[in-house]
TrEMBL record:
One term of GO molecular function: RNA-3'-phosphate cyclase activity
PANTHER family given in the database record: RNA 3' TERMINAL PHOSPHATE CYCLASE (PTHR11096), RNA 3'-TERMINAL PHOSPHATE CYCLASE (PTHR11096:SF0)
Function of the molecule: Catalyzes the conversion of 3'-phosphate to a 2',3'-cyclic phosphodiester at the end of RNA. The mechanism of action of the enzyme occurs in 3 steps: (A) adenylation of the enzyme by ATP; (B) transfer of adenylate to an RNA-N3'P to produce RNA-N3'PP5'A; (C) and attack of the adjacent 2'-hydroxyl on the 3'-phosphorus in the diester linkage to produce the cyclic end product. The biological role of this enzyme is unknown but it is likely to function in some aspects of cellular RNA processing.
Lineage, broadest ranks: Archaea, Methanobacteriati, Methanobacteriota, Stenosarchaea group, Halobacteria
Protein source organism: Halocalculus aciditolerans
Protein name: RNA 3'-terminal phosphate cyclase
Length: 340
């Protein structure tokens, strides 16, 4: 049976997650109205690459996996290991492509290595440092065996970033992230292209973070300059609560003082510090597929559209997630035996 899915209420997350779930479950889908509420609608390069990558790893037959397509059909085969390579072809987000591949570790029969090319730090997507310092540690704590090598960063507009993702067959533990715990330490990761070194952009972004938050816990700071095809910078504040982390990112922009970039990332942290919930609002929806698969509970600051649309998608694949609102948003699941 092929699931009929409506993609008009959500963004690229819906079609990426659907491709991941199809690969894991063997359940095919037809999604219409893909990114129907976005301008422009349809797949962008990062979404098409993510779906194509997940489909390739499960030897799927596909229709409509092209830039601009508003109808995508995936008929999955069997997950397999091996070595693969995918190029977004633009500066669009590689972390979002990785996002579609990570759940597949739960159903892999043998390891997979995937070489990826595109953008690493771009607007409307998790930064590279959020992926490697917040999301990946959270998934590893659940038992997901994944490694990420950074060969080159890529900023807009030229991209040119290069990552290598390795996934190994994994079994997940239940997700238990209901309590935030005490803040143990904060790390600030600031990166800029080599041509910004004389202006001390990476260090000034850190100065902006320092100005924006006043903490009585240890703060680790890392500034680096990297070879890139386009000028760019990024700063990510990582708050470590012992059992898990939260992350807050800001991108450099032409004409925007580097200190203001750091202040923007600090403002994200300050907002979270005054809110309920264990995980930040972005990690909440990214953890939903793992929560649905392994069971457990997560609390987050608020009910977002991404949480709602992802929960509906998971329910369509037979992996329901309960959403309860009180002081904090509570997401819970009993766990579903979806893998083949």
């Amino acid at each position: 049976m092929t699931l009929a899915l409506d993609g008009s209420a959500g963004g690229g997350q819906l079609v990426r997650t659907a491709a991941s779930l199809a690969a894991l479950t063997g359940e095919g889908f037809e999604m219409t109205g893909v990114r129907g509420n976005r301008d422009p609608p349809g797949l962008r390069a990062q979404h098409a690459t993510a779906v194509r990558a997940a489909a390739t790893l499960c030897d799927a037959d596909t229709t409509g996996v092209d830039v601009g397509s508003e109808r995508v059909v995936v008929d999955p085969g069997t997950l397999r290991g091996g070595d693969f390579a995918f190029d977004v072809g633009t500066a669009e987000s590689l972390p979002l492509v990785v996002d579609a591949l990570l759940p597949l570790a739960v159903g892999l029969p043998e390891p997979v290595t995937v070489e990826l090319a595109g953008g690493t730090d771009v607007r409307h997507a998790p930064s590279l440092d959020y992926l490697r310092h917040v999301k990946l540690p959270a998934l590893r704590s659940l038992g997901l065996d994944a490694e990420l090598e950074i060969d080159r960063r890529g900023f807009y507009p030229a991209g040119g970033g290069e990552l290598t993702l390795t996934l190994r067959p994994s079994t997940l533990d239940s997700v238990e992230l209901s309590e935030r715990g005490r803040l143990a330490q904060v790390a600030v990761h600031s990166a800029a292209s080599n041509d910004l070194a004389d202006a001390d952009v990476a260090e000034r972004q850190i100065s902006g973070v320092r100005e924006g938050i006043d903490l009585d816990v240890p703060v680790r700071e890392a500034a680096e300059y990297v070879s890139t095809r386009s000028t760019g910078s990024v700063v990510t504040v990582v708050a470590d609560y012992g059992t898990h982390r939260a992350g807050f990112t800001a991108l450099g922009e032409r004409g925007r003082p580097a200190e203001d970039v750091g202040l923007a990332a600090a403002a994200g942290f300050r907002r979270f510090a005054g809110e309920p919930g264990a995980v930040d609002r972005h990690l909440a929806d990214q953890l939903l597929p793992y929560l649905a698969l392994a069971g457990g509970s997560v609390t987050a600051p608020e009910r977002t559209r991404h949480v709602e649309t992802c929960a509906r998608l998971l329910d369509a694949f037979g992996a329901p997630v309960s959403i309860e609102e009180s002081d904090a948003l509570r997401l819970s699941a009993t766990g579903a035996e979806l893998t083949r």
